Amino acid sequence: MRVSKYLLSTQKETPANAEVISHQLMLRAGMIRRNASGLYSWLPSGLRVLRKVEAIVREEMNKTGAIEILMPLVQPADLWVETGRWEKFGPELLRFQDRHNRDFVLGPTHEEVITDLVRKELSSYKQLPLTLYQVQTKFRDEVRPRFGVMRAREFLMKDAYSFHLDQETMDNTYHAMHTAYSNILTRMGLEFRPVLADTGSIGGNMSHEFHVLANSGEDLIAYSTGSDYAANIEKAESPIPTQTRAPATQAMTLVDTPNAKTIAELVEQFGLDITKTVKTLIVKGATEEAPLVALVIRGDHELNEIKADKLELVSSPFEFASEAEIRDAIGAGPGSLGPVGLTMPVIVDHSVIVMSDFAAGANTEDKHYFGINWERDLPLTTTADIRNVVEGEPTPDGLGTYAMARGIEVGHIFQLGTNYSKAMNATVLDENGKSQVLLMGCYGVGVSRIVAAAIEQNNDDRGIIWPEAIAPFTVGILPMNMHKSHRVADIAEKLYQDLANAGVEVLMDDRKERPGVMFADMELIGLPHVVVIGDRNIDAGVFEYKNRRTGEKQDIPFDQIVEFLT
Ligand code: ATP
Ligand code: MG
Ligand code: MG
Ligand code: MG
């Protein structure tokens, strides 16, 4: 590819409203453009990377024996009613009606559609086990789209679904997927960790997430220093009983909150005895107009009396999307929470809820969630930090102690059991002609998220450093002043052809730009190998080669360059 005939929309300035490095670099390198919140166009270089990720995922899926299909993005509501998720899924599910007033959704995932397909398509145990997959657009109306394609509303996912009659083949397929996911991320040169994950509201009995390790990751993972044991912090278990832990003694600062107050200040204000009462703190800043903070403290306080029988929800910080939801959760009628402001603590059974506007001034459409298990005396950061375990504690396997790392969830595998198949009556006849409900597994990879995650791990102050397997082009050719020097133009042209003939993906910068601009662009877009051609090296009969990752330069004789790069 020649830059003059390409769309290389690089930009020098760091874009405003791009918080993480991958988002900044994807915009600066001309990989993506924002269309609306959480919606992006993929420009040529971005698409080339996306397709490479997709190809690797597809190859590894095919290796496991999974078979590719393609299901519709638009799904009829009826199927979601059948599984109960029409009610349960919440506002992430984008619902709409067609011209006949029939309800539809934009698919955030495809368990319903695949189960419907399979119940009609399969009849006999002889067709099992079976794994089907697709690579397809998903839509989730994320409460907080951010970080570019990392948490988008429309994104590309590979989702696979397996069907079984017995746990043994279920386990085999799960294991094969675990291996495939490891292969995918290894091939891309990414540092990752598979971790035990919560099976959450879907139920099921086994789940792992695959995390690309990066400080910008939204998830916190706890891993063992002495074994392979690792778990998402939500799932991590401690062998130490909670009661024996030392109570919190020191003040903790609210981070990420513009007008931060310390917990100590809050505690003093309400006269709480944190050493015996505080269990969980949940702080939430909602929208620009109505930032909220909810403080949930379990204890024996009796400051006020509001009857509530839904206390469980209160202890689950992830459930709150609005003040109304908190009211609902605690069974409080309108007004009973009092005015927004640090004025009205509400005692619900053994919990105190404080709504506050002290997150006001958050400059952002983002919603903030904060949480902490106070008994453990831990620093307060984001929701992902609601910790069951702390650094240095023994792990459940007794083989090491806990260490923490931040991760970006790029894959998730799940044994679903019969949750969907039972609800949707997906059965086949077994050997004895008896009808049996299918066991199911599901396996997702965030194809578009991987592109961003890879950049989080591979960059420097000059730009992206692509791992070779997913680079948009493998080699960049930088001819210096080729519009003035015929020698440079001819040799560059020949190298371009030779490399193309050898099957190397090349990008040649044939613009009439200053060398400085060309170098900066090449480093920004991050091609692994760069060949510089100038009159000086031509005199010496060599190309100047530069490795993007190591920065190492090397002179390579003309007749050895193709071999060197292939
Ligand atoms: P998260 O915890 O980040 O919201 P999830 O657990 O909701 O992700 P899954 O339902 O497990 O996501 O979907 C499978 C994969 O799809 C995830 O592991 C992730 O890589 C990707 N994914 C999920 N949501 C998004 C999104 N909004 N934008 C891009 N990729 C996403
Ligand atoms: Mg999600
Ligand atoms: Mg998740
Ligand atoms: Mg997940």
From TrEMBL:
Ranges of residues in domain Aminoacyl-transfer RNA synthetases class-II family profile: 38-467
PROSITE patterns, per database record: AA_TRNA_LIGASE_II
MF (Gene Ontology): ligase activity
Keywords of this entry: Aminoacyl-tRNA synthetase, ATP-binding, Cytoplasm, Ligase, Nucleotide-binding, Protein biosynthesis
EC id: 6.1.1.15
Entry-linked InterPro entries: aa-tRNA-synt_IIb, aa-tRNA-synth_II, aa-tRNA-synth_II/BPL/LPL, Anticodon-bd, Anticodon-bd_dom_sf, Pro-tRNA-ligase_IIa, Pro-tRNA-synth_IIa_bac-type, Pro-tRNA-Synthase_IIa_type1
Subcellular location: Cytoplasm
NCBIfam families: PRK09194.1 (NF006625), proS_fam_II (TIGR00409)
PANTHER family per record: MITOCHONDRIAL RIBOSOME PROTEIN L39/PROLYL-TRNA LIGASE FAMILY MEMBER, PROLINE--TRNA LIGASE
Function: Catalyzes the attachment of proline to tRNA(Pro) in a two-step reaction: proline is first activated by ATP to form Pro-AMP and then transferred to the acceptor end of tRNA(Pro). As ProRS can inadvertently accommodate and process non-cognate amino acids such as alanine and cysteine, to avoid such errors it has two additional distinct editing activities against alanine. One activity is designated as 'pretransfer' editing and involves the tRNA(Pro)-independent hydrolysis of activated Ala-AMP.
Domain remarks: Consists of three domains: the N-terminal catalytic domain, the editing domain and the C-terminal anticodon-binding domain.
Family: Belongs to the class-II aminoacyl-tRNA synthetase family. ProS type 1 subfamily.
Quaternary structure (record): Homodimer.
Protein name: Proline--tRNA ligase
